[in-house]
Automatic annotation (TrEMBL):
An example Gene Ontology molecular-function term: glycosyltransferase activity
Name this polypeptide is given: Granule-bound starch synthase
SUPFAM superfamilies given in the database record: UDP-Glycosyltransferase/glycogen phosphorylase
Keyword Glycosyltransferase: yes
Lineage summary: Eukaryota, Viridiplantae, Streptophyta, Embryophyta, Tracheophyta
Pfam families: Glyco_transf_5
Pathway: Glycan biosynthesis; starch biosynthesis
Record-linked InterPro entries: Starch_synth_cat_dom
The gene coding this protein: GBSSI
Cross-referenced PANTHER family: GRANULE-BOUND STARCH SYNTHASE 1, CHLOROPLASTIC/AMYLOPLASTIC, STARCH SYNTHASE, CHLOROPLASTIC_AMYLOPLASTIC
Amino acid sequence: GGLGDVLGGLPPAMAANGHRVMTISPRYDQYKDAWDTEVTVELKVGDKTETVRFFHCYKRGVDRVFADHPLFLEKVWGKTASKIYGPTAGVDFKDNQLRFSLLCQAALVAPRVLNLNSSKYFSGPYGEEVVFIANDWHTALLPCYLKAIYKPKGIYKTAKVAFCIHNIAYQGRFAFADFALLNLPNEFKSSFDFIDGYDKPVKGRKINWMKAGILESDKVLTVSPYYAEELVSSVEKGVELDNIIRKTRIQGIVNGMDVQEWNPLTDKYTTVKYDASTVADAKPLLKEALQAEVGLPVDRDIPVIGFIGRLEE
């Protein structure tokens, strides 16, 4: 969805501005371009110690790093037909909190342990002078682990975290007792403490990952100025986090567009290619092709209206 689009397009745009940019994602598949760095780290997740391996590829000026662990790869890849977040749509994997705790911890280790030399402008580990951009609830533990594990040891002293909300409707609400799974000091409990006002699945006291991400980060962002206004406009629109966001403030930066990905001159999905000078001739032909394909009356003078928005249940 939109988050995938941002993670695809924003990092190369930042790299083109001269930044050194790394993305860190779970290794959900045997990505054909991503090679094993053979770097492994041991991380405490729940009551176990887990080993994560890092895979890497370098594309369009960006280090693409994938955290490899059976919690990610074995669940989604191959014949399981599982989704990324659960076995079927709308159902969570029972261990989602452990899976994303692993991702957050791996993201904090990667800049220090990976010796990456693909770029002709930068070489070696990224080191500690970094800004983490944490996207949505799955990454909300990152600012917490940064403060609990690293900063007390004098590591990442100047590092900052921007937390970006792409979809306020998914917040990572779990049973209050689950706070113990996260291996965080008790002083963080209040940042997670949340009273769920909705009946589904159950009302009452929970932990809320996104609430903690908002409170523990240095800056809170979202995907457009309008969405920023919407999130603080009411309990419904802010899905019960409106008061927290009003407290921390939020800045909306409109999602850009990857002009390489969305280039009508090179788009492999269209039969007629065009640019600014040929758009008037090409679009009626493409409209007719679309109408024919979906069984509408073929008429280049009829308007075709596209809608881009949330598609949920």
